[in-house]
Amino acid sequence: MNKTALLIGASGDIGREIARTILKEGYITFLHYNQDKQTIHNLQEEFGVEKVIPIQADLTSDDGIHKLKNSTYSSVDAIIYNAGTTFYGLMTDIDEQTKQHMIQLNITSLYSTVQAFLPEMVRKRYGNIVVISSIWGEIGASCEVLYSMTKGAQISFVKALAKEVALNGIRVNAIAPGAVSTKMLNNLSEEEKQEISDDIPMGRLAQPYEVADSVSFLLSDKSSYITGQVLGVNGGWN
């Protein structure tokens, strides 16, 4: 029997690669997106509409969580929470709406999404939850204080929940990517990207598929005794 996964944030560069990876591994996948419907449509064309079930929801609001839950027609075996946004600037320059949206998306909606699907995982005594956090959630970043705070909260969530549900056969882990070559870095110049690459021991940015491969590992039986951990995908950059 095919396993079922819910991927939150499937339309971005990393999300698309995670989707392609787990779909190749046979998961029937609910793919959440907010605005970029075309990416999800492309995945449906590639893998088939019976394997790819789109869910549109704005998770910066409580209504989005209700829509997400009501749009799934079955329990899920795995949740991959990849949603997130960032703001680059001084802490004092962040307006209230930006602050509330980021807290809602990165913390509140993560909690509420898992809370909605966890009881069925507990009943089945099986489940796998992977949260895409960030290196900044571990070490913090100047001019990304709010983002660092919310990503750090995700890591605390993973470590606490893993202890709570381990006896129920549910594993909970996080991935903390470093600098990844995605559109999120489009605000940087090529010179700035090169400076970051030069600061990374491996001398380059990560590629989205490398994050996706790490998700694949944490979902697989090869990581059957791993829970409550943060896997750094950062090329030695810390």
Structure description:
- The chain is an alpha/beta fold and 238 residues long.
- The chain has helices spanning 13-24, 37-47, 62-70, 96-124, 136-139, 145-165, 190-199, 208-219, and strands spanning 4-8, 28-33, 52-56, 78-81, 127-132, 170-177, 230-233.
- The protein has a 7-stranded parallel β-sheet, sandwiched between helices.
- β4, α4 and β5 form a beta-alpha-beta unit.
- It starts with a strand and ends in a 5-residue tail after the last strand.
- The model has no long low-confidence stretch (mean pLDDT 94).
Summarize, please.
GO terms for molecular function: oxidoreductase activity. This protein has 238 residues and is α/β, with parallel strands linked by helices.
Helix content: 40-55%
Q: Could you describe the largest sheet, including whether it forms a barrel?
A: 7 strands, parallel
CATH topology: Rossmann fold
* Alpha-beta classification: alpha/beta
Radius of gyration: 17 Å
How many domain modules?
1
**Cross-sheet strand order for the largest sheet:** 3-2-1-4-5-6-7
The overall pLDDT average reads 94
Any idea of the CATH class?
A: Alpha Beta
Secondary structure tally: strands: 7
Task: Supply database-style keywords.
globular
What is the topological layout?
Elements: E1 4-8, H1 13-24, E2 28-33, H2 37-47, E3 52-56, H3 62-70, E4 78-81, H4 96-124, E5 127-132, H5 136-139, H6 145-165, E6 170-177, H7 190-199, H8 208-219, E7 230-233
Parallel strand pairs: 1-2, 1-4, 2-3, 4-5, 5-6, 6-7
